[in-house]
Amino acid sequence: MLMNSLREEFWDLAHRLRAQILTDGFCQQVPLLTPQENRNQTADLNVYQKWKDRLALDATWPKVLGPLTAKIFVIVEHDLNQGELEFVRRWFENDRLKLNFSQDIQIHPWPDFPHAEDAREFFKELILQVKPKVLLSLGCQPAARLLQAPPSLETLRAGDFPFEGFPLVTTHHPGAILALDSSQDTLKNLWKSQIWKDAQRTAGKLRLV
């Protein structure tokens, strides 16, 4: 228990530091620590530098978690709290899927730009630079905005709708299921089953692309 607690604290501190670096605009000077083939190691960071000054008045850059070299690029509408992060971690870091949450996954909240289309263009540029294996939308809103489609979770979960050539999987937002109380166990179990299928489908894309 002590080791797990220390690991979680170290993980959180490391990603808070990285998020602060991105927010302060020093990111263009920081090379990626894990070089990968076909990746420009400074251009992807420069995407942040290009777009950070276009945020809405008084807005701050959202807290980005995980390395730019992550295989799974997760997009969510707002910053996740610690309980939601832990819930997502358990989707992937288990005996079945065996992914490393802190290495294989980057979570990027939706930036607050004054024009809706700006965020879509930002994600387009960033994704084309960092080249993840698969995109995962937590909740239907990010996927709907990227695809310029109606925000229907049922429809977006039902199939593969690539964004800029990258497979995009949509699933429930962790906050939605955590908000269910004990009287909604049937719905909670249904959503958990759907999330597990979506997590398996996301992990499966890593072997297909």
Give an overview of the whole structure.
The protein has a single domain, classed as Uracil-DNA Glycosylase, subunit E (3-Layer(aba) Sandwich). The chain has helices at residues 2-23, 43-51, 82-92, 101-104, 116-130, 140-147, 153-158, 174-178, 185-208; strands spanning 72-76, 105-109, 134-138, 168-171. It is an alpha/beta fold and 209 residues long. A four-stranded parallel β-sheet has the order 2-1-3-4.
Walk me through the topology.
Elements: H1 2-23, H2 43-51, E1 72-76, H3 82-92, H4 101-104, E2 105-109, H5 116-130, E3 134-138, H6 140-147, H7 153-158, E4 168-171, H8 174-178, H9 185-208
Parallel strand pairs: 1-2, 1-3, 3-4
Helix pairs in contact: 2-5
List the keywords.
about 210 residues; Uracil-DNA Glycosylase, subunit E
Give a brief rundown of this model.
The chain has 209 residues and is α/β, with parallel strands linked by helices.
